[in-house]
Specification:
By secondary structure, the protein is of the alpha/beta class. Helix content is 25%, strand content 32%. It contains six helices and eleven strands.
């Protein structure tokens, strides 16, 4: 059975478990080149991005709520905390970059709240790099559970969100970030947003 997020309506969202456990691919390596240090990987999973950054001497930290993922990240030498992004974190307000890959903009089911939290973590002019859905896919607030991960069984229901490229600029602005365009490679869309030096007026 393929690993998926299943919604309350029965729809499924594929989970790229194999890719998460592999080394970063060419698209991800190119994305990493533009990240200012230190880098915070939110929902880092098995730590492939953090480990790859660390292997080149760059400062990076991962955060994930899954003890299994954190343990796997530790085995590959990645610096990872078993913690929610909404818990207190080291270096708040001093991170050069924060990344939300693999649909992690959905964490908590409230993209504006999540991006607002990212803003508090970034240094002024720090950058958020957020993987989003392709244009034409509307934002959805969902309740989902994980199914089909070998050895994991069926997980509990939790809030999640899907964010398309069309909605990202508005969400980032509501969260106090400045939208800064997209990078597109091999059908993957990475939105960029910057924490302004002066807070945005609402």
């Amino acid at each position: 059975m393929t690993a998926v997020l299943r919604t309350r309506t029965g729809a499924t969202i594929p989970l790229e478990v194999g890719r998460w456990r592999a080394d970063p691919d060419g698209v991800e390596l190119a994305m990493m080149e533009g990240l200012g240090e230190p880098v915070l990987d939110i929902g880092c999973g098995p730590g492939r991005i953090v480990a790859a950054l660390g292997a080149t001497g760059r400062l990076a930290l991962g955060v994930d709520t899954s003890p299994v993922a954190v343990a796997e990240a530790g085995r590959r030498g990645a610096s990872v905390l078993h913690r929610s992004i909404f818990d207190p974190l080291p270096g708040e307000g001093r991170w050069g970059s924060a990344v939300l890959l693999d649909g992690n903009i959905g964490i908590g089911g409230d993209p504006v709240a999540l991006l607002g939290r990212v803003r508090t973590l970034l240094a002024p002019e720090g950058q958020a790099m957020v993987e989003v859905e392709t244009p034409g896919i509307p934002m959805e607030i969902l309740t989902v559970r994980v199914e089909g991960v070998p050895g994991a069984g069926v997980g509990p229901w939790f809030p999640w969100a899907r964010v398309g490229a069309d909605d990202f600029a508005s969400l980032a602005t509501q969260a106090g970030l400045l939208p800064a365009g997209f990078t597109v490679a091999h059908d993957r869309w990475f939105a960029r947003a910057v924490r302004p030096q002066v807070p945005l007026r609402r």
